[in-house]
Design a protein that fits this description.
Blueprint lengths: L13 E5 H15 L3 E5 L1 H6 L2 H10 L4 E4 L2 H13 L5 E4 L5 H10 L3 E3 L2 H13 L4 E8 L7 E2 L3 H9 L4 E7 L11 H19 L6 E3 L3 H6 L10 E4 L21 E13 L4 E2 L5 E2 L4 E6 L16 E4 L2 E4 L9 E4 L11 E8 L2 E3 L1 H8 L3 H6 L6 E5 L1
Parallel strand pairs: 1-20, 2-3, 2-10, 3-4, 5-6, 6-7, 6-8, 8-9
Antiparallel strand pairs: 1-11, 11-14, 11-18, 12-13, 14-17, 15-16, 15-18, 18-19
Helix pairs in contact: 1-3, 3-4, 5-6
Bound molecules: pyridoxal-5'-phosphate (PLP).
Length: 384
Amino acid sequence: MAKVSGSGLKRRVRVEIDLGALVRNYAKIVEHVKPMRVLCVLKANAYGLGVGPYAEALAKAGCRDFGVAEPFEALELLSVLRRGKCAADVQILSSILPDEIAPMVKAGVILPVTDLATAKLISDAARMAKTTARVHFKLDTGMGRLGILAKDALETIRAVKKLPALDCEGIFSHCPMAYDPKDPFTKRQIKLFKSIVAACAKEGISFRKVHMAASDAINNFPATAKSPFTMVRTGINLHGSFDPYGRKALKVEPVLSLKTRVAQVRELPAGTTLGYGRTWCLAAPTKVATISAGYADGLPLALTNRGFVFIGGRRCKIIGRISMDYTTVDVSDVPGVKAGDEVVCFGSCGRDSITPDDWAELKGTHAYDVICSLGSRVQRVVVG
Ligand SMILES: Cc1ncc(COP(=O)(O)O)c(C=O)c1O
């Protein structure tokens, strides 16, 4: 268990990140989409888990393409890679603002071209820095969020190709519904994107990196991992989680275990009500453990009276409303349980397991939300 530096104290709540499982998941994705390149998406501090260990482990495993959402993430990731002497590409996948361009060009970050005006600014910055900026055209084929509209794509690409100091190495797009393998909208998006790539090829414009698939499409639209595509992007599958809908074609394994400790164990009489709102009333005398984790640590309120944790090798039901720092659970079946004992909030216990995806189902959300909601008090601990 990790110590808080200097004090000798151990954090109560921690998320253990199994880097062995992470690397195995990466290898499975690489194998599944061969011969595509696999870009690992480590935006938002690797979905809140800590970009350093993720980047180091994935770079050691052979990853040469990383994606982030914005400039600070790009710089942080680059410094991790440089420290590890790894020459991998770092790419901003979303947007770039005028005042952010020069430092990004100087740092060698691959930038998205979302319109002609941005491309001109990137070209100017690259000329000023006496360098060549690598860029990817970001096409909006139906995501409705960012990028060059499909109808303007060819004209914009032609114009940008004429600008100096740019290496237009890539073209990409993103899908909003690729978790549904039958979704006609995604099929139309893929067709549209391919038609733009083909029209470019007809004019002699080719790209080294052509990509559309994120985890959803990798699992549900195999066409996005075949020519003309040359790369896929993966985020949530690296952590062993999936979108709640659609196929789970990849056999990835859980990477994360959220653990805490028992704060107190008490025998409470029938009729006792537990916690805020008095949402649970004990029907019989019950042994109740109060565990040291609550919604500030990322336990969804939706686990109230419905979720489970593992204590002493047993599944224990959450009874009473989750509060900010503490949660009450029924430990009647756990012999000898006492304050300080380990609690597995999600993770495995023998052959049984509770995953972020299970929590997501109870909360009516997706695993991204659960993983990104782990609180700042939760210590990120690398194992494996
Ligand atoms: C442009 C882009 N590509 C890839 C990803 C990674 O998605 P996933 O975690 O579903 O693989 C995201 C995440 O939102 C994204 O915005």
